[in-house]
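seq:
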Amino acid sequence: MLFAASLMAMSASAQKLQQCPTPFALPAPSTHVSAPMKATSLENTNVWGYYVKDGKDLLADIDAGKVALVGMGDAGTVEVGYKVCVKGSILENASIQAVRIVVPDASAVKSGSVKIYDKNGKLQLTKSITVSELKDCEYANVMLDDPFTLTEDCYLAYSLTTSGTSDGARYPIFMDKTQYFAESMYVIEGGQFYDYSESFGPLVMQLALSDFSLPEHGVNPESISGYTEVGKEYSFVLPLSSSSSVVTTDVDYTLSVAGGEPVEYHANVSLPAGLNVSGELPITFTSPAESGAFTVAVQVTKVNGEANSLANTVAVSEFVNVDRWVDRNCVMEEFTGTGCGWCPRGMAGMDICRRYLGDRFVGIAYHLFNSSDPMYPTGVPNLGWSGAPSCIIDRAMFDVDPYYGTNEIILDDFKARIEGIPGLVDLQGTTAVLSEDRKTVTVNACIEAVEADDYEMFYVLLADSLTGTTFKQSNYYYQYDLSTIGCYDDEDLIQKFVSGGEWGSASPKVVYDDVAIATSYVNKVSKGGTLTMGKNEKQTASYTLTLPTKAVLKKAIENSWKLYAAVFAVGSNGEVANAIRVKVNTDSAAGIDGIQTDNEVQEAGRYSLDGRRVTRYTPGVQVVRMSDGTSYKEIVK
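struct:
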């Protein structure tokens, strides 16, 4: 995680928020015009929120999938909110006249209330929602009995109790997928606050404020975190948040690297007038000559040539400087199963990542959803998945949808980590060999530490092309056509599961890849061992994985013998330091018929570095994906 919740970190005991798996259908056109705010107490108020659009703009974002639904997957009671940072901000001493909420299906809402908590999470105010005033996809103004003056940081929230089976009943909360603000999306349960901001984006909820006005020239920089290589020039984009009554055309700022003397710069930007307008400021600097943690401080001093009128003008970003940059491969650990009707999108998400990223993507599908699954494994981790389908990325990002990811497509999450974070160990040279009796696979890992740490080793045996008469997938997507669901590209696997597709039935027999068939876990504890390593130290480790003996799974494996070993090291911070996926060498196993040899491996596709499908004649650097799942880079002139 790039940030910590101010009250409580996300916990396995929290309710499990998830995104609605299908696009939300807008209500009938008769409800598309938002009613104006007519209440006398809302005259001369300004609207504040992390998401400030209304009316047709809101509907357009819903239709485009920029604003999406989240919920628990079942009707019931859910409470969500966000933090309002008051001290030293333009909100200080403003008064809340009303809280503005929006719901997708007003008929499903049975009761609700708006709540205000102080900065310590103590309830300060509760106001009931008049359910009869709710309309689909329109803001409802929940008037407070008395104005609430903002003098300290606080939390604004609302709870809803819904019934029914519609998407709006099961996923009644709107959130903005296009932005990120820390502490802008909480689930509140049992007096504890669980931060879902990184997973879902800001909550769509607004405040109607009096005694509040926008300054003329106000821009806040926001901090980031990242990695650099010693002595190298590094460029990044610093997020800006503008709250200004006029258009912002340029800013002056100072830049201080590793506590050095601030250097002044001028930059042209383009930010429209408005509240919480997002922008970007390109920053370039040279990293320090020594490895280790350092900071980059940016202060926006002037806006349009005038003094910055906001209080929070400084952003201090934290970086880790490494001696050498080792390419990172990323791990997806997915919770899935044949009995999960929405899990086909997890299969599609993994396939997209494999096609575009090749072996830089290490996908592990744990078929844990239902014990009747022919691929149901033994010896698996207990990682606290939120339900199926969901995944964990590098044990650093939790409760992520394996198709949509944290924004619109899971591929973007993996690209960001692969491009922006180095591997802290190097696992090149790792091998995996099938025994002659075809019962075990021995993995020999080669580990070189970029940074000194204690690294816990994990081993997983994977199988591709698993199929059989009982390998049937529960599929809810057969009820929808492709125009309703949409797809990422022309090869998106989701096309097979919709109406008219090859697997477009309620329970089709499908082919499974990236299936975890054996692991280093015993009784949910990994036996892979821990290596204490110094900087640049090299060590080797070995682990033997036993193939499953369950007849139906054993038969499916022996029909293809497409086996891979995933090896990854986890540092003391609990995150994956690096990973590798290697093909299991089956040449030494006696008596295996029909094994695909290297001569039979064929080219499966070509892609540019930004992920576009290209031909063998397209100039530039290409990623060539082979039929056995491996890939390599090729320069085409």
